[in-house]
Design brief:
The complex is a heterotrimer. Chain B is α/β, with parallel strands linked by helices. Chain B is built from 23 helices and 13 strands. Chain B is globular and about 75 Å long. Chain C has two domains: 75 residues, Ubiquitin-like (UB roll) (Roll); 129 residues, Alpha-Beta Plaits (2-Layer Sandwich), CATH 3.30.70. Chain C starts with a strand and ends with a helix. Classes of the chains: A alpha+beta, B alpha/beta, C alpha+beta.
């Protein structure tokens, strides 16, 4: 086959501050291919998620084959190929939280926002996700709204907090 | 920092410590921070300043004190009183009444609601009385972000000093062997022998890895230790490096543990600055460097070979063993991997001697174990007890029993690799072998209490779902087996299961247990097998609910 | 090379150190079932068909990755092992959508052969019927995920022998799938050299050339090891 340009070669601008952060990290790690996961963390922190153009960029700069980048991204639960939403609500589904009532929170969230865990609303305003255990088991059930841990979370409190943050009622 | 300077820092701490009238410590572990403890700390510092006593008292943050449901917690010395559910508005009251007027506020003392009389010296409270803090030493006392606190308040880096200047690597390994410490990650392999194995391999490069990928849902011992006493873990890593002949270490910490990562990185920075990490430590010929590697949400990366793959920048897929990491690990070099808790026990063992550690615990399991006690229990949190303590003591004396008038049903240990222990085995002594005899495992320390409202078949389904989601997908038994077992369990829980389904489950359990490539698959059937052993009636009850054409549960 | 004594299925043998149990068995006429193993690429021990019992070791170990050690007493064909091999085979069939009647590899398929070898008569487990795609974008080749058993030979041969790294694996657990580049159509791959090695190593009809029709596929299993050997020669 003739060598062809990748359809993802959108050439991210190197002056974009988010791209700069990735380049700085790559330099710090000496462009080692085995620093891929560390670099993906930085990229996701900068962009909020991992768009294809960013993955193509990393593949080229780090000289790691595309399949290797993609297979690593999709293996780890942390990394997201899609936007996680402007506001995020993570419900912990660890054992202690399961025993103390994580399910009801997810059920109520679905009722209110028509979103299941792992989904983002069509207008990208809200994303619901779960984590296997965030380690706050003494405060089960735990939820994380926009990075803030909510101890002993009740469905109605979580919904109230989200509604306030998003401005209007959905 | 050389030996002399280390001694000086210690002395200066002791002088400051004795010059002060007392300490105020506000717990700043993830749990208490989420409940607002940072505001409380600021408020108390402000009030103390307003009242002109800020120089007489050391008011700062500390690591986790263990009574996590009752947070935010504030501890005051020398009375050693711990206050619970503290609010920022109460800062004034605490300073005015307890510190200035020397009148402890009984209505705010930890557990006052469930005690006839609350314990002003809160270490006397039943929650703490049976505990023995070795790994959790320094809890509620030292500021995790202060290396001076660690040096002066927790014998910091004394063990490293002893190792580097008064012992050979062989002496250090011998001491760890004598302690009979067993891997606290769950497998319980004798740590000293592991160290010796890696030590014996001749190689130009060796590595020490701290396994902080605490993935068991319901377990937060390692998170707590990393947040509360990161220097203790770091010191353990350096001593390990010295013993086995490695000059590079990696601390692999879960990505979800932001605070733990932050505190550990601060510790690395501080230790480096003090010359306790890096080139020629304390002026010796030994050099050791540590880097943090952050996990990205894969439970399987707690498995040693998968962890190694992850540090190598790849998918966290386990590799067949043999060869073991001791022989061929990170980048093919001899690698020592130890759990956070195991490493945190090293400094005390070196300082006090292996004999001292070995004298605690049972015949086969020495020392103490940290447990994350959660679920349907009055006092949820982090505890450390000598091996050999019974489950009954832990749940009813320390934990305070089952709330809301419910009855105890089962205690789950070992997370998704473990089993459920029913009432008839409440007097089982907590140690590696005894727990295996009753069909569970020690695991990393998660201990979840369930009451009569728990559906044990759903518990099995919950854990199987976890294993199915976390399976890496490399081998057929785990990849397909866990999915099939989960489908069958879901069917059972929905009242659509048959006896034949139960038969298939039992068949698959044995198969997956014996043929899986790594520990995740091999132990995935454990919760199922253990609930079948003790709660078969619940499985049969679900089958009885089935009203399909196959008739009354004769599928 | 030093020789060490081992016993395999009751037969005492003198074998070279440093070899895997699988190599030793092959050299001594002991048949071991394999699937993910392929001459010329590295072993991963993932199919679990080659598991053997070794006295004194309570875990079953894969013959393809475990090296022989002196005085090992190895068993390859106990009732327990045969029972597990049968379950593994049935799970292979239940995992994806294997329809032999319309497949180019019918009659020339390693999965079919495996089924016969273990005496599989039916699959006792419920079929999972997952959603799986077919990628026909490439002008010469097809990748049909319905027939894939995730042996990963294609991934290994592409990275270890050809060096193109076109193939990878996405997701984990039951959701794993073979992918090209960024999970993009094979035709759009910027790394694939169309060498056809993956077609040759695939044990089933998952990877096949458009030039053949049902039941006509013939593959050359020796191709990879021969290439690897020829590369080492200095002609």
């Amino acid at each position: 086959m003739k060598p062809k340009k990748s359809i993802l070669d959108e050439n991210l601008s190197r002056t974009d501050p988010r791209v700069k952060q990735i380049l700085v990290k790559m330099k710090k790690e000496n462009y080692r291919p085995d620093a891929l996961i560390e670099i993906l963390h930085t990229a996701q922190n900068s962009f909020g998620f991992l768009p294809m153009s960013v993955l193509a960029f990393i593949s080229k700069e780090l000289k790691v084959p595309p399949s290797r980048v993609y297979s690593t991204v999709t293996f780890y639960h942390f990394f997201s190929l899609k936007s996680k939403g402007e506001h995020t609500c993570l419900v912990c589904t660890g054992t202690a939280c399961y025993v103390k009532g994580a399910e009801p929170i997810l059920v109520e969230l679905e009722k209110k926002f028509s979103l299941k865990a792992g989904q983002v609303s069509a207008d990208n305003k809200l994303g619901i996700s779960t984590a296997r255990c965030i380690g706050a088991c003494g405060l089960a059930p735990a939820a994380v709204v926009d990075g803030e841990v909510i101890p002993k979370a009740k469905p109605e409190d979580v919904i109230k907090m989200l509604t306030e943050k998003m401005g209007a009622l959905k | 920092m050389n030996r002399q300077e280390l001694a000086t820092v210690n002395e200066q701490y002791q002088i400051r410590h004795h010059a002060q009238k007392g300490k105020v410590r506000v717990c700043c572990g993830t749990g208490c921070v989420a409940a607002g403890s940072e505001k409380i700390l600021k408020q108390i510092q402000q009030v103390a300043k307003d009242k002109g006593i800020e120089n007489d008292y050391d008011i700062n943050m500390s690591g986790c004190m263990g009574a996590c449901t009752q947070g935010p917690l504030v501890r005051i010395t020398p009375e050693n009183t711990i206050y619970e559910y503290v609010k920022p508005e109460q800062a004034e009251k605490i300073v005015e009444e307890h510190i200035i007027k020397k009148q402890p506020i009984e209505s705010m003392i930890l557990f006052h609601g469930s005690r006839e009389k609350p314990f002003v010296n809160t270490w006397e409270d039943p929650f703490f009385k049976k505990q023995h803090h070795i790994v959790l030493g320094g809890r509620g006392e030292i500021n995790p972000e202060s290396i001076e606190d660690y040096i002066g308040g927790n014998s910091g880096y004394k063990a490293l000093e002893k190792a580097l200047f008064e012992s050979s690597p062989e002496d250090v390994i011998s001491e760890v062997k004598h302690s009979r410490l067993r891997g606290r990650g769950g497998a319980g392999f004798p740590t000293g022998i592991k160290w010796e194995t890696v030590y014996k391999y001749v190689s130009d490069q060796k590595y020490v890895i701290c396994n902080g990928d605490e993935g068991d849902p319901g377990a937060f011992m390692d998170r707590s230790v990393l947040e509360s006493n990161p220097h203790r873990v770091l010191e353990g890593m350096i001593i390990a490096g010295y013993a086995i002949g490695a000059n590079k270490g990696y601390a692999y910490i879960r990505g979800e543990y932001e605070l733990a990562v932050k505190r550990f990185e601060l510790a690395i920075k501080a230790a480096k600055k003090a010359g306790l990490l890096g080139a020629n430590i304390m002026g010796s010929t030994f050099s050791f460097d540590v880097e943090v590697r952050i996990g990205a949400g894969a439970f399987v990366c707690g498995e040693e070979t998968a962890l190694i793959a992850s540090i190598e920048g790849k998918r966290g897929m386990p590799r067949p063993r043999p060869p073991f990491p001791a022989e061929s690990g990170l980048w093919g070099k001899p690698t020592l991997i130890n759990n956070v808790e195991s490493l945190a026990a090293i400094a005390p063992i070196i300082i006090n001697g292996g004999e001292w550690f070995s004298a605690i615990g049972t015949a086969k399991s020495a020392g103490t174990k940290v447990f994350a006690l959660t679920g349907k229990i009055m006092n949820s949190g982090l505890i450390e007890v000598p091996m050999g303590t019974t489950l009954r003591e832990i749940i009813f004396e320390i934990g305070g029993g089952i709330p809301d008038g419910h009855a105890f049903k089962a205690a789950q240990t070992g997370g998704p690799s473990g089993g459920c222990i029913p009432e008839k085995h409440l007097d089982v002594k907590v140690d590696y072998e005894s727990l295996m005899e009753v069909g569970s495992i020690m695991g990393s320390g998660g201990l979840i209490v369930m009451d009569d409202t728990s559906d044990m078949v759903d518990v099995a389904r919950f854990f199987m779902e976890f294993c199915m989601d976390e399976s890496c997908g490399k081998c057929v038994p785990c990849r397909v087996g866990t999915k099939m077992m989960h489908d069958l369990l879901t069917k059972l829980c929905a009242g659509q299961g048959t006896l034949k389904d139960l038969q298939r489950l039992e068949e698959l359990s044995v198969y997956v247990k014996e043929t899986s490539l790594c520990g995740l698959g091999m132990s995935a059937p454990n919760p199922l097998l253990s609930t079948l052993r003790y709660f078969k009636n619940e499985y049969l009850a679900h089958i009885d609910r089935n009203k399909t054409l196959e008739g009354v549960s004769h599928g | 090379m030093a020789k060490i004594p081992v016993t395999i299925d009751g037969k005492p043998l003198e074998v070279d150190t440093g070899k895997t149990i699988l190599d030793v068995c092959k050299e001594n006429g002991v048949e071991i079932l394999t699937m993910c193993h392929f001459e010329g690429v590295g072993d991963v021990g993932s199919c679990r068909l080659c598991l053997v019992e070794i006295e004194g070791i309570n875990k079953l170990l894969p013959a393809c990755t475990t090296k022989v050690a002196a005085n090992q007493i190895i068993k390859t064909n106990t009732e327990r092992l045969k029972k597990y091999q049968k379950i593994t085979t049935e799970l292979f069939f239940a995992e994806r959508n294997h329809v032999c009647a319309v497949c180019v590899a019918d009659g020339n398929c390693e999965l079919q052969d495996l089924g016969y070898k273990v005496g599989m008569e039916h699959v006792r487990f419920p079929y999972l019927f997952p959603k799986a795609n077919v990628d026909t974008s490439h002008p010469w080749y097809v990748l049909d995920h319905n027939r894939c058993i995730m042996c990963t030979r294609c991934v290994r041969v592409c990275s270890e022998v050809e060096g193109a790294h076109n193939w990878g694996i996405k997701n984990r657990g039951f959701e794993v799938r073979i992918i090209s580049d960024f999970d993009t159509p094979w035709a759009d791959s910027t790394t694939c050299t169309s060498c056809g090695k993956c077609i040759n190593v695939c044990p089933t009809g998952a990877l096949w050339p458009k030039s053949v029709v049902q039941g006509q596929l013939v593959k050359n299993p020796k191709m990879v090891s021969e290439l690897v050997a020829k590369r080492k020669m200095n002609l």
